[in-house]
Every structure is written in C-alpha cells, then in structure tokens.
Write a structure and sequence with these properties.
31% of the residues lie in helices and 18% in strands. It has 7 helices and 9 strands. It has helices at 5-11, 45-50, 71-81, 98-110, 141-159, 169-176, 230-238, and strands at residues 31-36, 55-62, 66-67, 84-90, 122-124, 164-167, 188-191, 210-214, 222-226. Helix 4 (98-110) packs across helix 5. The chain is globular and about 45 Å long.
C-alpha cells in the first residue's frame, strides 16, 4: 500500500492499522508485521520472521483488471518463512461495482481458508488521483458507503469472513462522512506514519486492529503493528 501524494499533502503521515471485529482488545501486547506489493521486488521474509514479525499483507489485485505480478512469489515466500499472510485489494470505486471487485479479489488471491495462517482479505481505500475522479473517486459520501457495503457483503458471502478495511482518518471522514457502518464487522487497518501512536480512530471503531506506522520496513515494504498478542492475531486468522 503506497499512499498517494494527495494523501501525504492532506493527511501528513497517516498510515495503516486494522481493527479486529468487536473483540474489545485492550491496548496491551503488540505483534510486528508488514505489507508489500510488486514495488518490493525482493523481500527478506525469513529475516523479518527472525526479527519478530509474524504477519504480512500482500497486494493481490486492483480494480477488476490488475493482478499484482509479485503476489504468488510474495505469498509463497511468506508461507515458507512461517508468516501468517493474507492478500489486499486496491479499490477503484469509480471503475466498477464493489461486488465485481470483491469477486475479482477472491478469484485472484484474496480468498480465505481456515488453516490458521491466512488473514481475511483487506480492502485498501485510498485517495484517488485526478484521472480516477479525485480524492473520493468521483463518488458522493453516500455512494462511497454503498460501494464499500457492496464489496464487504460480497466478500463475506464468498468467504464467510468480513474483510479488513485499510484507510486513514482523513480519507474516511472526507469520503464516507465518517460512516459508522462497518465498525462491528470489518477490522480496521489504520494508516498514520508516526511514532506517537495511531491518532484519531474514525468511523466509530473502538480501536485499530493494525496500525501502519511507517512506509519503511527493514526487510521490505511498510511497517505494521497488530494491536494485540500473537494469540489474538492467530484468532483473526482462524476466524
């Protein structure tokens, strides 16, 4: 997940975090992790594991026409290193329906299995470029909430899991009107690049499940912090 320049200008340092659904995890232990895409041609999966990382989220798809060319390599490398792993979908709300994009995501790496090592898929909601309709991809707040609902419900129907949602506080407030529609279903992955904590939690989520705290991770990609103990991370993977 590479945040756009629009994000950098508008939200100066907002990065990622996920929210485990209504588990009421207190702030206690944390687990290191990271996220990657084709921008990271090589990743030191074993080095990451040896340093304490236990999960990785890997870009699988974008819209309904793009499959990340490094997804299989990254997924297999993460599996071999013993990492809990999952895929993410880079949303293009202005190009096709949420249902169509969720279906494409599940068909190309974004599915889930109850093997205890697979995270539910993640929906990556970010600032659109000018050619994509601007910050909110040309959608009104109501239309954006409807689009996300379409994606989330379709993904759940196909996998039995609610997808995680990645966003920033600024984007969520701007493009959904700070909607509370997903805070009891989808875990929040909140992006905020900072050493001072994840900041304001949007959308009525009681906490972030994962905080993307930096766009630089020693072993490749962006740095993530799971808000809970390893047993809670495994619970998220198990369902």
């Amino acid at each position: 997940m590479k945040l756009t320049s629009a994000f950098a200008l508008a939200a100066v340092c907002q990065a990622a975090a996920l929210a485990v659904p209504v588990d009421n995890l207190e702030k206690r232990d944390t687990v290191k992790g990271f996220d990657i895409s084709h921008y990271q041609a090589t990743v030191n999966y074993q080095g990451a594991y040896n340093s304490g990382a236990r999960f990785v989220i890997i870009k699988a798809t974008e819209g309904t026409t793009y499959i990340d060319p490094k997804f299989s390599q990254h997924y297999n490398g993460a599996t071999a290193a013993g990492l809990i792993r999952g895929g993410y979908h880079f949303a293009r709300p202005g190009s096709s329906s949420g249902a169509a994009q969720a279906t494409y995501f599940v068909a190309h790496g974004g599915g889930w299995s109850g093997d205890g090592r697979t995270l539910p898929g993640m929906l990556d909601m970010e600032y659109g470029t000018a050619s994509q309709g601007g910050t909110c991809h040309g959608l009104s707040k109501t239309s954006m909430v409807n689009w996300i609902t379409d994606f989330v419900n379709t993904y759940h129907g196909k996998t039995s899991r609610w997808p995680m949602i990645y966003t920033t506080n600024d984007w969520w407030v701007t493009c959904t009107g700070n909607s509370n529609a997903f805070n009891t279903k989808s875990p929040l992955v909140l992006a905020r690049y900072s050493t001072a904590g994840p900041g304001t939690i949007p959308g009525g989520w009681p906490f972030q499940t994962i905080w993307q705290n930096s766009d630089s991770y020693t072993y490749g990609g962006d740095s993530d912090i799971f808000n809970g103990a390893l047993t809670n991370l495994k619970k998220l993977a198990t369902g």
